[in-house]
Design goal:
- The protein is of the alpha+beta class.
- Strands 1-2-5-4-3 form a five-stranded mixed β-sheet.
- Helix 1 packs across helix 2.
- It starts with 6 loop residues before the first helix and ends with a helix.
């Protein structure tokens, strides 16, 4: 563990945060702990920018409230939280998401990939790459544009109706809207994957004729149009909630 804080000190601090028994000394200790991630965070952000040419949206330190809520919600220790510091990358589609995730795992020596696309968390879908640098864990969220607009919509509903919405609670009608829209996005992105796989198979079997290329291109164009329409529809809902 970086700095002078021991794992025991940190986890005991986490116990107090979970219970809500937070003193000024605890807040100072938590700030000290969060600062131990600064160097690793800067290295990860810098490597993504310099090597991959991508511009992540960064969050160098998770808020006290978010940390406390997560400790209460999940059976984990403070030292086990993997997103004390992190960043996010928004990509166009599933194919680009796959490329970026592969690039990240190649860029950093020690990584863990958490794929929430097939097994979403209450509708939330994305790929998280956890990069480990000098003992510290930095979370890199990789979302497609549709996965991101859904997450933004979920956040806005949680602002209006309460954070339980994000974790399977709250108003049932809102949960239904979020679950249905998540499934719709998943189905559309699944078609993108199937189309890409079909193209690879046809090419490997020397069946990628000009006619097949034209058909694939038309399907891709239709999928692009569908993606754009879905993004606009969800963006309009988001704007209406912000008014």
């Amino acid at each position: 563990m970086a700095g002078k804080l021991s794992k025991t000190q940190i986890d005991r601090l986490g116990d107090r945060l979970r219970q809500g028994n937070i003193t000024e000394a605890d807040l100072r200790l938590l700030d000290e702990y969060r600062r131990t991630f600064t160097d690793a965070y800067e290295v990860v952000i810098g490597a993504i920018r310099k090597t991959l040419g991508l511009e992540p949206t960064g969050r160098p330190a998770k808020s006290t409230t978010s940390i406390s809520d997560k400790l209460r919600r999940e059976s984990i220790r403070l030292t086990q939280i993997q997103d004390i510091a992190g960043c996010r990358l928004i990509v166009s589609d599933i194919a680009e998401q796959e490329r970026v995730v592969q690039a990240l795992t190649s860029l950093f020596e020690h990584t863990t990939v958490i794929d929430r696309r097939q097994r979403p968390s209450h509708g939330y879908r994305a790929v998280h790459v956890i990069a480990k640098y000098q003992g510290e864990l930095i979370e890199i969220q990789v979302r497609t544009s549709l996965q991101h607009i859904w997450a933004e919509l979920s956040e806005k509903f949680s602002d209006v109706e309460g954070t339980a919405i994000k974790y399977g609670g709250g108003d049932e009608s809102i949960r239904t809207v979020l679950n249905d829209s998540s499934l719709t996005i998943a189905n559309a992105e699944s078609l993108e994957i199937q189309l890409a796989e079909m193209e690879v198979i046809l090419s490997s079997e020397n069946k990628l004729t000009e006619d097949n290329k034209s058909k694939i291109k038309r399907i891709q164009e239709n999928l692009n149009s569908l993606r754009q329409k879905m993004y606009k529809d969800y963006s309009d809902i988001l704007k209406s909630l912000e008014e």
